[in-house]
Design brief:
Subunit structure: Monomer.
Family: Belongs to the adenylate kinase family.
EC number: 2.7.4.3
Shape: globular
Catalytic activity: AMP + ATP = 2 ADP
Strand content: 5-15%
Distance between the termini: 28 Å
Largest sheet: 5 strands, parallel
Pfam family, one: ADK
Bound molecules: adenosine-5'-diphosphate
Number of helices: 10
């Protein structure tokens, strides 16, 4: 990880580790996974990436969380960032890479290796910088239809005490025009979080629509970047967590990994 931090900081294009994972190969032991989660706002990158991180024992690094942490701690970049984030725009590559480098350095100091990146890279420039400094094994592209994305963002609630992520939306989209229907039950918080729920300032209808527009303009090309390198695993979410999680594990060849982990525990 040290090499990644140094090189990300330098913006160098030196290549780092050897390739070690293809989407259908079993997990190898030499180093932990280095995966990326792509997908539109509201698709559930954070939910599925953090579950996989717990399963695989790697840090979950979400650049959106790094930005929100900088905002809430009133760091030197806070006022500049709040304006950008609350308009649904992207933070500059320079600022994101500086926040990410700091986080990677912290993980390294804790002796962590491997990672799942969530929300990075989001531009071709970020993807090129990342490619210049380390080998990404696999990129998971989570997909949901736009109607569900909007409903999920508007229904998202966060507990301001424990940080838990919940969703009050009850989604029931009828199948039409060749698109499948979709039912997603709300993900309600436990009673002790109920009175502490907050909504993200950028989860309003206008800002979510702008974030979706920006995703299509700036981040959609990142999918092609990884598709052309044979690293993209497309995953259409079939519903909420109960339906999607087992299918995602299957797609990642991790379905019996979860059983082995619980048996070993
Ligand atoms: N890689 C990135 N590049 C630029 N801006 C970013 C990046 N990651 C996060 N941000 C900023 O933080 C905001 C919140 O990010 P995130 O929680 O990942 O949101 P989303 O739900 O839109 O995927 C983004 O709208 C953007 O302003």
């Amino acid at each position: 990880m040290a090499a990644i931090i140094r090189l990300i900081k330098r913006g160098s294009s030196v290549s780092y580790a050897a390739r070690s994972f293809s989407s259908h190969a079993p997990l190898r032991k030499e180093r932990n996974v280095q995966w990326v989660f792509l997908g539109c706002p509201g698709v559930g990158k954070g939910t599925y990436a953090s579950r996989l991180c717990s399963l695989l024992g790697v840090p979950h690094i979400a650049t959106g969380d790094l930005v929100r942490h900088e905002l809430s701690s009133n760091g030197p970049l806070a006022s500049q960032l709040s304006e950008i984030v609350n308009q649904g725009k992207l933070v500059s590559d320079e600022i994101i890479i500086s926040l990410l480098s700091k986080r990677l350095a912290d993980e390294e100091a804790k002796g962590e290796s491997g990672f799942i990146l969530d929300g990075f890279p989001r531009t071709i420039k970020q993807a090129e910088i990342l490619e210049g400094v380390t080998d990404i094994d696999l990129v998971v592209n989570l997909k949901l239809q736009e109607e569900a994305l909007l409903a999920k963002c508007l229904g998202r609630r966060i507990c301001n005490q424990c940080g838990g992520n919940f969703n009050v939306a009850s989604i029931n989209i009828k199948g039409e025009n060749g698109l499948p229907g979709m039912v997603m039950a709300p993900l309600l918080p436990p009673a002790h979080c109920m009175s502490k729920l907050v909504t993200r300032a950028d989860d309003t209808e206008t800002v979510v629509k702008e974030r979706l527009r920006i995703y299509n303009e700036k981040s959609r090309p990142v999918e092609e970047f990884y598709r052309s390198r044979g690293k993209l695993l497309e995953f259409d979410l079939p519903g909420g967590i109960p339906e999607s999680w087992p299918k995602l594990l299957q797609a990642l060849n991790l379905d019996d990994y979860e059983e082995k982990q619980s048996a070993a525990a």
